[in-house]
Amino acid sequence: MQWHCLSKEEVLKKLKVLPDSGLSEKEAFARQQAYGKNILEAKKGKSLLVRFFAQFADFMILILILAAIISFIVSYFDGEPDFVDPVIILCIITVNASLGVLQEARAEKALEALKKMSAPTAHVLRDKHVLVIDSSELVPGDIILLETGCFVPADGRLLSSVNLRVEEASLTGESHPVEKNAEVILKPDTGLGDRINMVLATSTVTYGRGLAVVTETGMNTQVGHIAKLIMEDETPMTPLQKRLAKTGKILGIAALVICAVIFIMGIIKQLPIFDMFMTSVSLAVAAIPEGLPAIVTIMLSLGVQRMAKKNSVIRKLPAVETLGSATVICSDKTGTLTQNIMTVTEICSLNGTEKMNSDFGTFLLSHAALCNDAILQEGNNINVSGEPTEKALVLAAYHHGSNKNILDTSYQRVHEIPFDSARKLMTTVHKSKDHTYRSITKGAFDFMINRCTTVYQNGKHLPITNKEKNRLIALNNSMTEKALRVIAIAYKNISRDKVKASSSELENGLTFIGLIGMIDPPREEVKDAVRLCRQAGIKPVMITGDHVLTAKAIAKELGILANGDEAITGDVLQRMSNEELSDNIYRYSVFARVSPEHKVRIVKAFQSRGEVVAMTGDGVNDAPALKTADIGCAMGITGTDVAKNAADMILTDDNFATIVSAVKEGRGIYDNIKKAVHFLLSSNIGEILTIFVAIILGLPTPLIAVQLLWVNLVTDSLPAISLGVEPTAKDIMKKKPVSPSKGLFADGLAIRIIIEGIMIGSLALLAFVIGYYYYDLPTIQRSFAEQNISNALPGVYTPWVGRTMAFAVLSLSQLFHSFNMRSEYSLASIGLFSNRKLVYSFLICAFLQVSVITIPPLAKVFQVVPLSFRQWAITLLLSMAPIVIVEFQKILNARYHPQKNFSLEI
Q1: Are strands 437-443 and 312-314 parallel, antiparallel or unpaired?
Q2: How many CB atoms lie within 10 A of CB 145?
Q3: Interval 718-765: pLDDT, tens
Q4: By CB distance 3.0 to 4.6 Å, which of 14, 91, 145, 464 could disulfide with 123?
Q5: Which among 115, 139, 140, 138 has a CA at the least distance from the CA of 41?
């Protein structure tokens, strides 16, 4: 029902209530049975157990569980049951599932915060008596009383209003209290922020009083609609989650295919069936980087810790990576791009713009501070309480030499005529120490100018002719075009017998002093942040409930509205279909006078064009869009609990510029995750090729199951995690965002992984061949000669040295290869020791690898033999080869700057 379109009488008739008596208790009870309580409903949540097990409905997770089972079976049948690998895999799965459960609680928390915002009590008229009741007991048709300082307990149509102003910023984005008027009847398409004959639940009365009839309660209120949006809209998967899910499916299927192919080839080559089954299954396990989910989680966690030190608190781990992919940042204006403090920025006399610290400035601002109800509190910090416009006037006067407290003492207020919406003026009468009297009037220029007969100029009073009047009108229009809120100030010296005169007498025959323009100014640091966003290929967008002129002025100053960008209002947006909005979305950089539903539509329109959208905001009205966006960023200081709980990230300093450093961090983390994936998969391909090629060539199996699992465990852990702390590249914010449509292996990464996997596999196979032909075969042949055996058949003996060397090279070459992953630039240019954690990881893992070969009990478990000095020398040379090969390739790339990139989308 569009209650703002109806007269007071029509509303009362439809709700079947009398304004002077209210509902009866009996009728109120009946309506509560029909409409329910005035509370926000909670979405029915799944049980903790159901949520937990739902986390396992993922292809990669299922493959990992299978990998854990197979890993144990392989080690068990190999005679040495090993719980380490399966336990690690299961721990990874459990941690990931637990994190998922915690993340799903966000919507419920947001709704709880909405509930807490509801007014606890309400003054209601029932059976001709004013009662104080719990706000949850209100029903449509209740008559409620509104006074300064009280929360509005439900949506209602005003029946009367006296100087009533209501703060609705958290619902509409309006930067200052809205002046209400019970007498007007509005058009059906009037925006939420312009419905001045209505009051909305959870808003606050800042001035005056009023009487309203409740029209909507609970989930039918405007804040209830927001609650529905939070419950209904699902948070989208992050780009990284999508990529890893796709990668996991491909790797899982590939592992099963590899397992089958190698097993079949082994049978064709007439190798022992059981041994081939164990080897193929182990290789399939090795093909899946089961440490990847844990490594990604650890990388994101480390990024979260770094970002927390930079005033960015991450509530959801994947949000870090999503920031790095952001292509659009939609920001609320009030309190996010601006300071949320009305500030006087310009004053004008008949001569034009004046300096505030001039004699005229002091004269004008002192009069504005006297005709003012704001309270100035002095101490260590200056604090002003009151209505935002009046606070701005008092602060401007104070900072330019006019202390309101001193003025009030010197010029005692003896009478006042409060502001009302009909006159648009406020007048106070003051008595000076010399017993003269002066009335001061402030208010809207249009209502003031025709009441003035003279104008103050250079200490003189000049008659207002058409010339002066037109000059003042032009000055007012000029300030209004700058989106300034303009207040006119005038005065009149009166005699003692006129002190208590009526408004018609006191507010006529005035001397016009000047104009004061104010605005909620933009944050200075945001200008640089917007510039950096554009440099990084990110489109900044302003979405606000404020007026379009104000929004455009701020957007132009910040650089958001530039290069032919357009602004659009909620009224125009309302008449557009989703398809039209999506088709034209790139035209607009400013959306003004929009509702919470509009904000969600805007976010979805950008998403429909393939954009990754970040949304910043602080109010209740921002919560649905924060949740719908790929990443929601709430303000930590001014942000409501609803906004914070609906967001993925909280900016603790309320600084829009902080999001830029967060984007940089996110990009760095995504780069490092790609490095880890690159490293793990190239290593795993190397393991696969070592076995695969050996079988094709008719060689003995170079590695056994337990060795494969060990190599996977060592190389998939510390080195990959250490790549996650690689310093962010200095030029990362000069690059375009990573397109969400791009596969994880685009831009030639898949080709490089395959080539490097071939390199590692070839080195391990070469080590095996050297050990097999130069050390194992001669030894076996001598043994056979001593036993008078004329024919030595492959496969009837164990290639101890070859297998040991292949085992060592496969592991150590991957450790050396991890340094290649650090950057696309040469190690010499970035510094070998600039990532000390990787150096430490290399030393620890190399020590572990050497230990299992050199310590007899461990050597027995892994079925290896001690190597001679020469064998170790060959092993070390082969293991270091990846550094030499890749460094040479980087030098060639730097020299010739190849333009062509191979791309294999996965």
Answers
A1: unpaired
A2: 15
A3: 888 888 788 887 778 878 887 766 666 777 788 888 899 999 999 999
A4: 145
A5: 115
* Other CB atoms within 10 Å distance of the CB of residue 547: 18
How many other C-beta atoms lie within 10 A of the C-beta of residue 275?
Answer: 15
| Lowest mean pLDDT across 22-31, 136-145, 226-235, 336-345 | 226-235
pLDDT (tens digit per residue) in 597-654: 888 899 999 999 989 999 887 766 677 888 889 888 887 776 666 677 677 888 877 7
- Evaluate whether the domain defined by 3-35+112-232 bears CATH number 3.30.930.10: no
Q: Name the strand (E) or helix (H) holding 617.
A: strand 613-617
Active site amino acids: 332
Whole-angstrom distance, CA of residue 300 vs CA of residue 132: 51
| Half-sphere exposure (Cβ direction) of 393: Cα atoms closer than 13 Å | 29
**Tokens 């005169």, residue?**
501
User: Do residues 502 and 443 make contact, with C-beta atoms less than 8 angstroms apart?
Assistant: no
Q: Would you say the CATH fold of 312-339+523-661 matches that of 242-309+668-896?
A: no
- The larger pLDDT score, comparing residue 240 to residue 680, is at 680
Q: Is the pTM of this model over 0.70?
A: no
Beta strand pairing call for 539-543 and 588-592: parallel
Half-sphere exposure of 319 (CA within 13 A, CB side): 27
Alpha carbon distance 815, 821 (integer Å): 11
Whether the Cβ atoms of residue 482 and residue 553 lie closer than 8 Å to each other: yes
The CATH number assigned to the domain with range 312-339+523-661 reads 3.40.50.1000
Q: Locate the domains of the chain by residue range.
A: 3-35+112-232, 242-309+668-896, 312-339+523-661, 343-519
pLDDT of residue 106 exceeding 90: no
User: For the domain 343-519, what is the CATH code?
Assistant: 3.40.1110.10
Q: Name residue 499's amino acid.
A: V
Name the pairing type of β-strands 631-635 and 613-617: parallel
Strand partners, 166: 178, 205
What CA–CA distance (Å, rounded) separates 642 from 516?
36
Angle subtended by helix axes 836-854 and 800-820, to nearest 10: 180
DSSP state of 522: B
Cα–Cα dist 485/341, whole Å: 13
521 token code pair: 């100014």
Q: Which residues pair with 792 in a beta bridge?
A: none
Q: Are 208 and 179 in contact (CB under 8 A)?
A: no
State the DSSP string of 276-308: HHHHHHHHHHHHS-TTHHHHHHHHHHHHHHHHH
Report CA-CA distances (Å) from 264 to 271, 695, 705: 10, 11, 17
Q: Using CB atoms within 10 A of its CB, is residue 822 exposed (0-12), middle (13-18) or buried (19+)?
A: buried
CA distance 810 to 763: 7
What tokens appear for 735 in the block?
Answer: 């690059």
Helix then strand then coil, % of the chain, to nearest 5: 55, 15, 30
Spatial distance between the Cα atoms of 619 and 633, rounded to a whole number of angstroms:
11
Q: Could you read off the pLDDT of 287-316 as tens digits, one per residue? A: 666 556 666 766 776 777 778 777 787 776
242-309+668-896 carries CATH number 1.20.1110.10: yes
One-letter identity of residue 304 = V
306/318 Cα distance (integer angstroms): 15
- At 131-186, the pLDDT tens digits run 888 888 999 999 999 987 678 889 999 999 888 888 887 677 665 688 899 999 99
